[in-house]
Amino acid sequence: MSAAERDPVDWDTLRAIALEATRHAYVPYSKFPVGAAAIVDDGRVISGCNVENASYGLSLCAECALVSSLHMTGGGRLVAFTCVNGNGDTIMPCGRCRQLLFEHSAPGMVLETVSGIRTIDEVIPDAFGPRTLEEYRQ
Ligand code: THU
Q: I need a labelling partner for 124 at 20 to 30 A (CA). Which of 30, 94, 97, 110 fits?
């Protein structure tokens, strides 16, 4: 049984924390604030916002800030995740950020998505990851 199944996720609260994070977004170029929030396997709740750059391609997605916060506040693995725009609407993590989330996911991690609650394996099937590298080394 996954961590999320043992302790059902309060998605309304997690979404509210993500929405609060959008208020800190630095988005002078896209004007599209994003807030991400997640529950860690020790029960911590973390969040992050997007931070853009005049060199557009260097912009940091909200998930980047969230993963930095994960490590800054003690590490662990993500068990539940959501991200929203400035209106509080759930959005999908971009492809790069699905890869980023996968790397730090607990088995069975769940995400609130535009098509309902999905596991990390559903949103990035057959993911390339640390195990791929480990298998090659052996
Ligand atoms: N963005 C995120 O923060 N996360 C995503 O998963 C999708 C896109 C941000 C990047 C950029 O600052 C803005 O949304 C518009 O693309």
A: 30
- Overall domain count for the chain: 1
Which residue among the candidates 20, 63, 122, 134 is catalytic per the annotation? Answer: 63
Residue 45: give its domain's CATH number: 3.40.140.10
Half-sphere exposure (CA, 13 Å, Cβ side) for 20?
Answer: 11
Q: What residues flank ligand 1, with Cβ below 6 Å?
A: 27, 30, 32, 34, 50, 52, 59, 61-63, 93-94, 97
Full residue range of the structural domain in which residue 116 is found = 3-137
pTM > 0.85: yes or no: yes
